[in-house]
Amino acid sequence: MFASLLPTCRSLWLALPLAVGLAAPAFAETITVTIEKLTFQPAEVKAKVGDTIQWVNKDVLAHSATARDKSFDVIQPPKKTVSQTLTRAGSFDYYCKYHPNMKGRLTVAP
Amino acid sequence: MLLRWNAAAIAAACMMGCATLAQAAGSAPTDPQIAHIAYTAGALDVAVARQALKKTRSKAVKAFANDMVRDHEAVNKQALALVKKLKVTPEDNDTSRALTKQIKDEQAKLAKLKGKAFDKAYIDHEVAFHKTVNGALTSTLIPSAQNAELKSFLETGLKIFQGHEQHAEHVAADLK
Ligand SMILES: [Cu+2]
Q1: What is the average per-residue pLDDT within B85-108?
Q2: B88 CA to middle of ligand 1, Å?
Q3: Interface predicted TM-score (ipTM) of this complex, two decimals
Q4: Confidence (pTM)
Q5: How many domains does chain A have?
């Protein structure tokens, strides 16, 4: 009984300072944008620097999220999920370079 | 429905500058025929893209042709899986035959061209071809499709073709 409790206690003590140390980045969010039938859903996303966009491509086609101002160009292979950490604040209109009729907007607060 | 099919075929024929498609008009296409037309359009675009990959030296044209091969092969693979699931056997028809002949003629024309003249002719063809297929999808193929899954597949196909048309227009603008 004691033997099994001990490691639990110890890991708790270890976990505590770690949790405190990670407190700041813990505010960073992961936002999912699903790509299905050639649409970005949601097409408008508001985020902040440090957040991660998780692009979930459900199509059998490769797509991209290419910023009009060229500040990012993320390729989403068919049936794959790709993560992008936002490092720059700004308002970005983006499109798919393979299917330019696919459009979205990403607003990143500092 | 009959009128619609006629109008679409004639519109398509005018766009392609070819009278053969008009003769294909008769009645609304059946699901097996629609499946065949959609598949044929994709396969033909892949064939022309492969010809372009052999001939072009332009990076942008090569990238575009590669995109066409990749997308249309992926879509056609999905089309085959769908017809198998729906137990539909694609059926050859006058529209598919007219499209095929049109593309064979185009390929013969392209074969005689080189360099920038080839690039321009290929991309112009891609804009026109995707426009034609989009016209046929919108006015005839999608409204005529009876099976809901086939209809939804064609609707996604239309978005892909519209995307390719815009992509081709961008490449055409860059070539100038
Ligand atoms: Cu795309």
Answers
A1: 95
A2: 28
A3: 0.81
A4: 0.80
A5: 1
